[in-house]
Amino acid sequence: MEFSIKKIVLICIVISSLSLKAQDLNDIFANCLISDTESNITRENPIRIIAIDEANNRIKTNYTALENLVVKATGNQSWFITQSEEASTIVEILNVDVTSGWITLGETYSGFFNMDEGETLEFFNPFVNYEIINNKPLFESYPTHIKDEYINYIQSGGIIKRAENDYVLLTPVIFGAHEKRTIYYATSADLENWTFHDEKILGSEQIPFAKKIGNVFSTGNPLELKDGTFLVLLGVEQPNGNYTSAYMILNKELKIVQAPQEIKIPEWQGETQNSFPLAITKHKGVFRVLFHRRSAKFIESEIHEITTKNILKAFDKNNEIISSNIIQKAKIETGYLHGKADDASYITFNSELHILLGSEELPSEYLTSFNREYGLMKLENNEWIHDKRSPLIVNPMTIHNKYPEYEWTSDHLGGFISPIFHENYLYLFLTFGTDNPDYLLSGVKVKLD
């Protein structure tokens, strides 16, 4: 009998483990912003009010998957209805009757809610997908100056796991109105408590092909090479103001063992180009690199991907490139993708490859108007497929009118984003827009079950 019980327990553990391994990253995310009955990206069937009960302050809409509106947030924050650009109108939802379809409304925390029949709206609760680490910016004592020079803001520039309980976050620091950007770093033993180090890793004055007082920043998580060093992607401002694509190699002590050099792929380097790399990974024996093509007009920006089996030959000699494809062409996209295409990060989960894709939509009547938010793509049969619920990582917007502790997160998310898995969480390091400074570096974590 004892043997049988032990056997049953063992079987249950194995089944549980297999179930977790079979889980898809898309399934981990809930539908935190619901703009359409079918697809947030195509928006062919926007959410509309179809019935009104003024006496009881409740409405019905054409959205039938009401079970999504009772998904619990990580801190039990309320669901909201929003209207107009940047969630300028926001109304708390008090109750959702999944059976009858009635949605009971609470206080209007911002703007004026138009509840006429036929009016459009969005359902919103960003906290069903994440919690903000420690509910505050990343550093206990947030730096404002380095050697008497005022910091505009600090951003995320890629994360390195040097050993167990030893993490490094590269932190490009912006001085002035993007007049100068220099790479520093922060360290942590647990991904939740961080120390910023005012020790410079790289500045533009160290790069022969860079503007002497200009911008250099790291992007994407550094790629660990066979010898234990790390290939770091760089965006470098040139003397003419255009950006070019480059890389350097660091050791675990964060010393530069290969000086920054341009990536010799003609489409992505040189004075006439205006572009920089975003992310790098190796998946099933193939290296993949994402690049951002800049433009003075948001709508002209693009994200491309190249593949190769020899990353150094591709970067140094423009050799052995397998493919080059466009991932996002802002001018022909819809939904939140119709705008500034300027950030993307690779994530590998259960041997499947994904991209967290950031985009800042052109002016519209939706929450994502002029707000950079992040959606999810998955590589299926060598084709990138959007999760039609995207965006899935959205900043709290005007929710701070009910929850004032989130006022510092109210503007759009800033690039760039650095992902890492740890203890049943996906950690994402990013910046929240605010007024002073422009952004505050922080992190969110997404529970994996």
What does this 3D model show about the protein?
By secondary structure, this protein is mainly beta. The protein has 2 domains: 31-128; 131-447, Glycosyl hydrolase domain, family 43 (Tachylectin-2, Chain A, 5 Propeller), CATH 2.115.10.20. Helices cover 7% and strands 45% of the residues. The chain has 3 helices and 29 strands. The chain has helices at residues 2-22, 25-28, 311-317; strands at 33-34, 49-53, 58-61, 80-83, 89-96, 103-110, 122-124, 131-132, 145-146, 149-154, 159-163, 166-175, 180-188, 194-202, 216-224, 230-237, 243-250, 256-262, 275-283, 286-293, 302-308, 321-329, 339-349, 352-361, 372-380, 383-386, 413-422, 425-433, 439-447. The strands form 6 sheets. A 7-stranded antiparallel beta sheet has the order 1-7-4-5-6-3-2, with no helix packed on it. Strands 9, 10, 11, 12, 13 and 14 form a 6-stranded antiparallel beta sheet that branches. Strands 8-29-28-27 form a 4-stranded antiparallel beta sheet, with no helix packed on it. The longest helix has 21 residues, at 2-22. The two termini are 32 Å apart. Mean pLDDT is 93; it is low at 6-22. This is Beta-fructofuranosidase. Residues 1-22 form the signal peptide. InterPro entries: Glyco_hydro_beta-prop_sf.
